[in-house]
Amino acid sequence: MIRVVYYYLILFMTLMMTIGGSVAAFMAIADIVSPPSYYHSYIEYQEMKIANKTKYNDQGEAISTPEINEEELREEYNLVVAQDKERNKERAWNTLIKGFGWIVIPLPIFIFYQRKIRNNQE
Questions:
Q1: DSSP codes, the chain
Q2: pLDDT, tens digit, for every residue of 72-100?
């Protein structure tokens, strides 16, 4: 009796692991197909660059504001967005491989114990 309960417990655990791996793999595939977008708009990026290059005195007043070339800033922004998308795709591939690990490793154990239960019932 205890052995049968143990077998069913193993079946349940490995089934849950396989389902979790399937969900993770599906989410990773979704991120590869459509990666999350960059969270800063061009205007926010421009303001951040200006704020980082502005020099202040001891009282916190702006001494000088930088001159920014719009074309260079736009190219830099587009590069940052492209790098962010590529980084998200690489993370998604990593998650996909890990998700397949949660499918491939417990699945043979599940099949083995399922056959054991089936053979004991016959």
A1: -HHHHHHHHHHHHHHHHHHHHHHHHHHHHHHHHSPPPPSS-HHHHHHHHHHHH-EE-TTS-EEE-----HHHHHHHHHHHHHHHHHHHHHHHHHHHHHHHHHHHTHHHHHHHHHHHHHHHH-
A2: 888 989 999 999 999 999 999 999 999 99
